[in-house]
Amino acid sequence: MSDRPIFLVGFMGCGKTTLGGLLAAEMYWDFLDLDEELIKRDGRQIKDIFEQNGEEFFRGVETATLSDIAQRKRTVIALGGGTFISHENRSVIRSAGLSIFLNCSFPTVLSRVQDDRERPLNKSKEQLEELFAQRLSAYKEAEIEINVDGLSPVECVAAVQSAIASLPAAIHN
After folding, report:
1. pLDDT higher at 130 or 26
2. How many domains does the structure of the chain reveal?
3. What is the CATH number of the domain that holds 160?
């Protein structure tokens, strides 16, 4: 396994932050949550950035933050739900490290985020479902896909580690 970062990709509520922290601990690597890093740099919550400056501004800050942290070594990075949608971001991620899509069904996502009003794009079930469908094809461009439905966080980490171990050396070195 190389020292290149691992980027966790997926829709809001799929477990990127939870699994990222566990995976990093298991590997003795650092863990970074892109959204938390962005909040630290900007000084505002994501919801506030969206309300005050709009999604386009937020996506620019997100891309700049990603570019700054993408070259870190031995780091698991949980991306925001919309980060991997951008061609520019996918290019940065591909050249820097390994992308892993944590795929879970819409009912699972909905059960986890439906009452979370801190998520600026979580306005209604219908809007979430539409966004979920729109983003799926981009998520599927990740190098590894793990179906996390029905798995405990520990089982998810084991599935990710197994998938990484089975990659040809050229992909993750």
Report:
1. 26
2. 1
3. 3.40.50.300
Q: Which residues contact 13 (CB under 8 A, 6 or more apart)?
A: 104, 108, 109, 110, 112, 113, 116
Q: Where are the beta strands (DSSP E) in 14-170?
A: 30-33, 75-78, 98-103, 144-147
The predicted structure's pLDDT at residue 171: 52
Which structural domain, as residue segments, surrounds residue 27? 6-172
CA distance 71 to 73: 6
Residue type, 150: G
Q: Could you give the CA distance from residue 23 to residue 164 in angstroms, rounded to a whole number?
A: 12
Phi, psi of 152 (to 5 degrees): -70, 165
Tens of pLDDT, residues 89-140: 999 999 999 999 999 988 777 765 665 554 445 456 677 788 788 889 999 9
Using CA atoms of 155, 157, 159, 165 in order, give the dihedral in degrees to the nearest 10.
Answer: -150
Task: Give the total residue count for the chain.
Answer: 173
